Amino acid sequence: MNTEVFKSKTELGVKSAKDAENKIRNAIEKNGSANIILATGASQFETLKNLVTAKEIDWSKVVMFHLDEYVGLTDQHPASFRKYLKERFVDKVGDLKAVHFIRGDSQDVEAECERLNGIISQHPIDVALVGIGENGHLAFNDPPADFDTEEPYIVVELDEACRKQQMGEGWFETFDDVPQKAISMSVKQILKSKYILCSVPDKRKAKAVKNCLAGEISNMYPASILQKHAGTTIYLDQNSNLLLSKKS
After folding, report:
1. Are the C-beta atoms of 213 and 2 separated by less than 8 Å?
2. Which CATH code fits 2-237?
3. In this structure, are residues 150 and 132 in contact, taking their beta carbons and an 8 Å threshold?
4. Domain residue extents for the chain
5. N or C: fewer beta carbons within 10 Å in the chain?
6. Is 19 helix (H, G, I), strand (E, B) or coil?
7. What is the pLDDT of residues 46-76, one digit of tens each?
8. Strand 127-130 and strand 181-185: pairing?
9. What does the pLDDT look like over 24-38, one tens digit per residue?
10. Distance of alpha carbon 160 from its chain centroid, rounded?
11. Is residue 96's pLDDT more than 90?
12. What is 132-183 written as a DSSP string?
């Protein structure tokens, strides 16, 4: 795991997007196509804004997988991650080779997981863009996260801290509006990615950054598992790095 610190979230976004661009291009050159995972949320704004301007990527050779989605929300809901990715990525890069969204409003969410599991098992992931939640979660794997399941996509319960973060970021008007469940890519599936690029700006993430990057690996700090992944780069700004930069 490598960690890079930038003066601002703007610089963070430029660098993480450039690294993603280079790795996607290399995968296409080597394999003829690239399989990527995209995250959502406020932490990804700058990264995706810059990635969609990449001129050297042949997006028609890219297969996109979706990291997580709320159970019960349609793709028209303002907080839908499908809506987020469609507006901020898919509509901007043009026709991709394939887009595999999580249908969180499926009548049978277990069957939706099985559908996705069958697809992703045939697509080794080249590049995963992820973040770290205020509670240390990786995707929607809230503490205590399941580090053992081999299932690529799972149904998870969202804890109070996670739901408060979603409301605090402005995606929902009230706490009770935030769904209690989601479909999430599992920790083991994320770790199968060749490269993991983890963007974590903002002061509100500083405690989670310290817990996950400076402490022991624990499912109570799910993103701490990234310490074990040699192909991971963590992108921090000065604010999210505040507690790591302190000597004591």
Report:
1. no
2. 3.40.50.1360
3. no
4. 2-237
5. C
6. helix
7. 999 999 999 999 999 999 999 999 999 999 9
8. unpaired
9. 999 999 999 999 999
10. 19
11. yes
12. --TT--BTTBPSSP-SS---SEEEEEPPHHHHHHHHHTTS-SSGGGS-SEEE
